Amino acid sequence: MNISPITLINSTIANNNLRKLILIFIDIACVIVSIFLSFYLNKDTINLNIFVIYSLILVFISIPTYYLSGQYKGLSRYLGSSEIYKIIFRVTLNIIIFFSIINFINFKSSQISFYIILWFLLNFITASTKFILRDFLIYLNKIYLNKKQAKDKVYIYGAGAAGIQLASAILVEGNTDIKGFLDDNRQLWGRTLKGVKIYPPSVLEKNNKRIDKILFAISSISKLNKKKLLKKIQKFGIKTFQTPSVRDLTSGRYKIDELKPVEIEDLLGRDVIVPKKELLVQDIKNNIICVTGAGGSIGKELCRQILKLKPKKLILFELSEVALFKISQELINLISDSNEIQIKCILGNALDEELVKSTFFENNVDIVFHAAAYKHVPLVEENPLSGLLNNIFSTKTLCECARESNVKKFILISSDKAVRPTNIMGVSKRISELIVQAFAHESKEINKNESDLYTNFSMVRFGNVLNSSGSVVPLFSKQISEGGPLTLTHPKVIRYFMTIPEAAQLVIQSCSLAKGGEVFLLDMGEPVNIKDLAIQMIKLSG
Length: 542
Hints:
Helix content is about 55%, strand content about 15%. It is of the alpha/beta class. It has a seven-stranded mixed sheet, covered by helices on one side. Strands 10-9-8-11-12-13-17 form a seven-stranded parallel sheet, sandwiched between helices. It has a two-stranded parallel ribbon with strand order 14-16. Strand 1 (about 150-155), helix 6 and strand 2 form a beta-alpha-beta unit. Helix 4 runs antiparallel to helix 5 (about 110-150) and helix 12 (about 295-310) packs across helix 19 (about 500-515). The longest helix has about 35 residues, at about 110-150. It is elongated. The two termini are about 35 Å apart.
């Protein structure tokens, strides 16, 4: 069985405190050598007795100081520059104590210059041995990995803070060969970082066949500029990975030195729209909210976002038992012990009028978000009656029950395919919108009669939601991982895209803005050609 030298050394010296013992012997040697050289450089006569006494005193001062201050707790392989400052502090403290003891016992004391030289030498020799040991361990590991496996050859795109941090982690691990940094800043070209040369991106034109991966390490960059840089890279057909964002780090999805594939959001070139917090909280906090289709892609994210805004009760209405169980368990785990939010699960069909009515009446529902629908265009085309029945009549049933139970607000989640529909799913959504608008008109008539008991009906239209079930993006990713081919409905098809969190937050904000009968849309920037998107995904996957 092959064992890395690093693993062998670490496992051996971890037993019976051998590791600490070895480091203590190294520090004792550093003290003795430093005292000897101090006598020599200070041009003092080296008396053996004085030399031994000085060495013993300084050793008995230094080792406990090093031990108590944590010098032997750190891993030698991961020493950083901060360790130098710790060494200086410890050595300074030791020299002060040493000088005090020598003078206190009235022992033959050397000149002040001796102690100054000793301070410099002890700092230099101690620090040098630590970093030599670190580099020796890294070198052993590198040799072992070179023999064991072929290392990936990579360029790091970005010679800034994120790039340096990534390079540091890679150099310590030793399982990747960094061929260079890439950066657009001309002033950096030809210089080095961590001993690695910085090149212009044009170097890829000559070396792209000898590179396995490009590691994108620029943290502070807009989506539009990131898209431009990724377009430069993609033409070389090299696998591209990136360092995690702050959001990924804080959520715990990734570690600081862990790489992830380039996300589809980065290819769209549009910054995520930040919601207005006051609009999010306004109608959700301390209210009773019902989400139909709570187990779907949009429904799940909607429930997560709503939970953060602290409703009094969140009702999950879902037909699929598996989907309902998963989202309910996830939400329950998110609720802290001190949080009094109630989660209620309703397993049933939104077409069941009696179930819907009893749910609304018994729970005094304030707001309904209707996300339950069949949305997969090809499936609905093959099953038109089921699609029309589910999408249209569930909307009608929910609207009637919402009006009868005096629900304050009803939000239909519609689709941009409802605009001049060309398929059955789009038709079903357009008819659903007309139903909601009819109920909204009727509610406004009731409001004219100064009745306080009326329901505010409105709707939100989505574009294509990234990574939702049925979205083209996860389909392309799956087809790429299986080696292709990628399937396109038509090479000239264009689509607007939005992220799932954006979609959910749009719904919640629209609830606060709704006056009745409106159709809310999100400005999603420029449309994306699906064929171009597919090609980008293929190239960035290598």
